[in-house]
Amino acid sequence: MALTEDDVRGIADYARIALEGDELAEMCAYMNDAVEMLEPILAYNLPDVDPTFHPIGGLSNVMRDDAPDAARAFTIDEALGNAASTRGRSFRVPSILGEEE
C-alpha cells in the first residue's frame, strides 16, 4: 500500500510540519520506503499471538512503599545544620516572586 502525496500532506498537517513541493515529494518517497521495509512482517501468520503495546509486557507498578528509613533519616537539626538561613523547622530561601513577607 503506497502512500500518496495527499496522505503525506495529511500526516504532515497533523504533525504540524510544513512541507513545500520538493520536500513533500521527498518525504513521500521516504515514507513509502519505510512502509516497504515493514511489508515482510505481514507475511507472518500469527493468529494466536496477542499484540504487544508495551515492550516490557505486563509490568506493574514497581515503586516501593514510601516509608521512612529510621536508620538513615536525618533529625531536623541535622537537616538544617548547614542551611544558610532557617525559620523554625524549615529552610528559608529567597522569594522567586519578588515579594517579601
TrEMBL record:
It comes from the Bacteria. One of its GO terms (molecular function) is transferase activity. GO terms for biological process: regulation of translational fidelity. InterPro entries: Asp/Glu-ADT_sf_sub_c, GatC. Keywords: Transferase. The keyword Ubl conjugation does not apply. This is Aspartyl/glutamyl-tRNA(Asn/Gln) amidotransferase subunit C.
